[in-house]
Amino acid sequence: MTVLSIMASFVCVWAAIKGQGASAILERLKAFRPTPRLVGTCAALIVPIYVIALLNLYAQVRLEEGAPFDAWMQALPLPVYNGRTQNAAVHSTLSLIALCCGLVATLSLGVLAAALRHGIGRTTRRAFGVIAVLLAVVSVAAPAMSTTDPYEYVAAALLGLRAYVPPPGVLAGTIYAPILPNIPLSGVIYGPLWVLVNSLQLSLGTSVFLKIELLRVWNVAFIGLLYVLLGRAGVSRNTRALFVVNPALWYYVVANPHADVQGLLLIVGAWIAAQRSRGIFAAVLLAGAGLIKLPFLLIGAAALAPLNGSRRRYAVWFGAAFGVALVSFLIPGAAYWHDFSHYVVHGTGHAHANLRDGWLLIAPIVAAVTVALLARRRAVYGAAWLFPQIAPLAAAWYLLWGMPYAAVTGTLEAFVIAMPLATVLIDSTNSLALPGIAIAAALGVFLIVDLSTIIRSRQTSPIVTSV
């Protein structure tokens, strides 16, 4: 299990024991009123901290990659550092810099959340817009990436549906040919809707570099659309403001462009449809998310919670699953299922795979809490942080998978605030085992103290009897 999964488990147990009891420590945190100067300082720190994180990644590329191991990563149009090659002399220092960036970003978001909660400073929301624009610009111009996935997206866009079973030599003579020996395309584990959208997104690019930049620009637009849709779903403006100035969001969606934001858009759309009691439309949108990435069928099921009646919720969920199975069988066919099952079976051999196949334990737990939410609309506080562990590859950007559950269960603000620190702790480009254990232990102590306070208050509360 990852450190984040262990911390999430602590929170789940704490919430279960606490029940409806008031948490004195949390109430004090909510009552915290930062000074205007502190608010201004935290707002001003967001972009510089993010720039430092991007430069830190670039330093890892230049200082840790090299002959005779992965020098080819430096020669890519956008160089990549993915943590497989480490220079012991500098790696710990660069990992600690990343940890500091994540910690400061999370603390800054916490202060800004308190400022919004108490209405401190009229210019705060305007400043959030400026910060979001700056984060977008910096992300598009980021000089390095922490994943080779976008290069595979480029190859898949060149092939379309043929990417599920690439014919031998099909990429020879294309713009991807120089990259193919080091980043081969042996299949696609994403759904046919993603293949279509990805091909359309990258159709105008004339080089590998431009195609990756197109991915980044498109994902900026998707973040903007997600902001709007979250508002339509009833998420408060304060929470959405924290969402768009979250450095972790820009780091894993734009600077390192992934396809998860596309699925999130469709899931939030399904949530809006469910709120309006449009079950068929919700099923179609959830099926669309599943046709982006198959796990989105589980991740997005929480969006169906607003529908009346547990039978209806399950019927819509199973209908979406049937639609995904049917379309996947009719369009890419058996090749897609072969690629996906091969990844699940052999994904634990990957350099970034979950420690000791922790996903085999966490995935059933996540499925159980999702089923419980649909059955009785009962949420498990803290479960949203378990979602990145449900794939054989415990990648940091999979933390985004917990957003639908957090949004539907009313914990999105806390989820967004914790994202920078949480993603740093599980990012494979860092080695933070001991700091992660220390932070997990500190959280455990914090929760135990809080529980002891709650239990004592219950024991000392006066008993009122009626005559």
Describe the structure.
The protein is mainly alpha-helical and about 475 residues long. It is built from 19 helices and no strands. It has helices at about 5-20, 25-30, 35-65, 90-120, 125-140, 150-160, 190-200, 210-230, 235-245, 245-255, 260-275, 280-290, 295-300, 310-330, 335-345, 360-375, 405-410, 410-425, 435-460. Helix 1 (about 5-20) packs parallel to helix 19 (about 435-460).
| Structure class | mainly alpha
- What is the tally of beta strands? 0
Indicate the overall shape: globular
Distance, first to last CA:
54 Å
Q: Provide the residue-averaged pLDDT.
A: 89
Which regions have little confidence, pLDDT < 50, spanning 5+ residues?
348-353, 463-467
Q: Count helical runs.
A: 19
| Strand content range | under 5%
Major sheet size, sense and barrel closure: none
Quaternary form = single chain
The SSE string, one letter per element, is: HHHHHHHHHHHHHHHHHHH
Q: Which radius of gyration do the C-alpha atoms yield?
A: 22 Å
Estimate the helix proportion, in percent: 55-70%
